[in-house]
Design brief:
The chain is α/β, with parallel strands linked by helices. The protein has 12 helices and 5 strands. The protein has 2 domains: 125 residues, Response regulator (Rossmann fold), CATH 3.40.50.2300; 143 residues, no CATH class.
Length: 276
């Protein structure tokens, strides 16, 4: 594991915090929190891969903190491992697992066991992340390949334009039919391309639209589509090709989406959308 992986340690016992930090900081980037409420705020700001959390704490206990963390779209995928001196009863443990905890570890723990537990979960986190990254790259390749086919379509439209220019000005019916054909062709291209993209996107990110709409219910369908492309870290030129529009129009759409999301100017739009 590398220090690019992050662990948030949550415990009201400073001695235990220091022990956990000393064991793990050689391998991971560490942040600490002193209670469940602190953990909720740190989880969203620090975005750790794993939260190592005490069960019993003042202000807000570990189980209640887990429920809040897992209900937040931006933190729901963080792996949570509970630490407890007295193992919780079966009902509490079942509730914890039902709400998304990954594992339990009894205190006082053996440092080798702690490292092994964290390492095992972190390997799963990194494997899942690499799989998603790989599938996202394949999806982008597919989408851009479809956009390259637009060159052929543009050639057809150019030929239609030549026919249109050759028609006498008084051929109103023919002129209108040609315009209708061009418009239908363009719209079908975008529609077909989008259906294929969306099918693969939903297979990789099944909850993206649901989570984003829950946080921002006023977004239009067009804005949701743009958001999905931005979440793949696609640039403006690539998105313009997919939407069959100019780069300038895409920049305007991006600016409008940022305003509607009401995110601060120092926050990267693509990175913000990746969390959903």
């Amino acid at each position: 594991m590398s220090n690019t992986n992050k662990v948030l340690i949550v415990d009201d016992d400073k001695l235990n915090l220091n022990v956990c930090r000393s064991v793990l900081e050689e391998y991971y980037t560490i942040e600490v929190a002193i209670n469940g409420e602190d953990a909720i705020h740190k989880a969203e700001a620090f975005m750790p891969d794993i939260i190592l959390m005490d069960w019993e704490m003042p202000v807000l206990n570990g189980l209640d903190a887990l429920k809040i963390i897992k209900s937040n779209p931006s933190t729901k995928n963080i792996q949570v491992i509970f630490m407890t001196r007295i193992m919780a009863d079966q009902n509490n443990m079942l509730e914890a697992f039902q709400n998304g905890t990954t594992d339990f570890i009894r205190k006082p723990f053996d440092t080798l066991e702690l490292k092994a537990r964290i390492n095992s979960v972190m390997q799963s986190v990194n494997y899942f992340r690499s799989e998603i990254d790989s599938r996202n790259k394949e999806l982008i390749k597919l989408t851009l390949l479809l956009s390259e086919n637009d060159v052929v379509i543009e050639s057809v439209i150019k030929q239609i334009n030549e026919v249109q220019k050759a028609l006498p000005p008084n051929e109103v019916f023919a002129q209108s039919k040609i315009i209708e054909i061009k418009n239908n062709l363009s719209s079908r291209i975008v529609e077909t391309k989008w259906k294929l993209f969306e099918k693969h996107f939903k297979a990789i990110h099944p909850n993206f639209y649901k989570n984003l709409s829950a946080r921002h219910p006023s977004l239009t369908q067009t804005e949701l589509k743009l958001a999905s492309l931005l979440s793949l870290n696609m640039d403006t030129k690539e998105i313009a090709a997919i939407f069959h529009q100019t780069v300038g129009s895409t920049k305007v759409s991006r600016a409008r989406l940022r305003r509607n999301l009401q995110i601060e100017s120092n926050i990267n739009l693509n990175s913000y959308l990746m969390q959903f």
